[in-house]
Amino acid sequence: MKKILSASYIAVLLLLLYAPILIIVVFSFTEAKVLGNWTGFSLKLYASIFQNGVHHSLSNALWNTLIIGVIAAFSSMILGTLAAIGIFNLRPRARKAVQFVNSIPILNPDIITAISLFLLFVILGISQGYTTVILAHISFCTPYVVLSVYPRLQRMNENLYEAALDLGATPFYALRKVVLPELKPGMISGFILAFTLSVDDFVVTLFTIGNEGLETLSTYIYADARRGGLTPELRPLSTIIFVTVLVLLLIINRRAAHKRIRNEN
Amino acid sequence: MAKSLFSFLERRKNWSVPYILFLVFFVVFPLILIVVFAFSNEDGSFTLAHFRKFFHHPEALHTLIYSIGVALITTLLCLFLGYPAAFFISRMVSSRSRILILLFILPMWINFLIRTLATVALFDFLRIPLGEGSLYFGMVYNFLPFMIYPIYNTLQKTDFNLVEAAQDLGATPRQVFLKVVFPLSVPGILSGIMMVFMPVISTFAIAELLTLNNIKLFGTTLQENIYNGMWNYGAALSLIMLALIALTSLMNGKGNAKAAEEGGLL
After folding, report:
1. Domain covering A56-230 assigned CATH 1.10.3720.10 in the classification
2. Is residue B214 part of a domain?
3. Which residues of B touch A232 (CB under 8 A)?
4. Counting beta carbons within 10 angstroms of the beta carbon of residue A181, is it exposed (0 to 12), middle (13 to 18) or buried (19 or more)?
5. How many CB pairs (< 8 A) connect A and B?
6. Can you tell me the distance from the alpha carbon of B34 to that of A3, in angstroms, rounded to the nearest whole number?
7. ipTM for the complex?
8. Three-class SS of residue A30?
9. Looking at the 3D structure of chain B, how many domains does it have?
């Protein structure tokens, strides 16, 4: 009885959580301009996102989002990994101070980050565009990379690096062959997290993107919404993204489960 | 030159230097700029006028108080809805609980603006008028995963032997929950509260879209001021919000660091 109650509670919550998504998915299979109108089954919207030039500005926004995401995530990964190694080797007091500053962008609401960076670029007289968005994204993504790499350093055996040096490795060789392989999982999850944050960001982007016509998916949708509607092609696009992520997560989950079972045997 | 660079890099603590410079330039300095702008006039001279304006200007003050109210109610709703869910999930076999947690996090991969617009469509579909009700639905809908995940995390790490020990010593299920499980999950609750309360005060797009611009939250006020070129007043309002957030995090000392660590939902 208790089990049924708890299961149905979770089912109801999930239903509420997925109701809006279900609406997007269902209405991606109809042509109507307005979300919520059903004008019969059609795959036209799916066809039109794969035909170039139909919605030039939308595909531009999508590309910008992906390019900014990859550059920001990659730079954050490099900067954050170097930083984590450096911070790990700092004296305790200096380490605490850097870790504190590192947590500021995480705890700050994005609108404060956005306004502070907006003021920075205004003061410096940098015209806003690609560069400012990428710099802004690196600034709020890197702290997460540091946080995901740092625990791996703590778990690592310090002597391994020293041993490599004693055996004649140069510091860079030792880094590449000994330290980096240990840090790799943390770096990868840091990269994925940074990419997700960058792609999903709206507020910081809005404040640093300038008015030269550069759009990311978020600012595009926002402008769209203010004009009173959602570009119909966004429905199939969201559906595709959603299904892809769902499948990816299920695969990762299944592989992790297999690994656990293998380890237990 | 190259040689000195090499010996500089050989000391690994120096590897933090690029990032420290980056932090100073892109995190600390911009925050100082907010303070400077908040206390200065357009011509750069010192003034308190912006803060006076804020406290004498009932509209902005009311928006702030209203936003705090919305954030509090949203946080409580998320807590009451999320705690049982996190609790039930933490009690399941691990393969099933993993999938369920994934299912709760998954919607976040769809851009929140699209989800919010879909919520608007859902309310239209059900012929429910947009207003405060839809605002709370949208807020809870957006932030519930941030509450469930940290609570689930702490509950899942709870040592089950403690529960058994309590049962062996004759505690009723109710006592076990109130005296053992709940107290142990407090850190998760605190970080959940941080992760819901603070973002809610500062959101603006959600309220805008879900109430057709009828309800204004503090985030919208901030954005409008900056957009209309009132940078100094906008900076003063940001500073007020920063103070509020510093206060919340101070009251929440430990949960704070935890929230930061568990910020990554992956």
Report:
1. yes
2. yes
3. none
4. exposed
5. 229
6. 53
7. 0.84
8. strand
9. 1
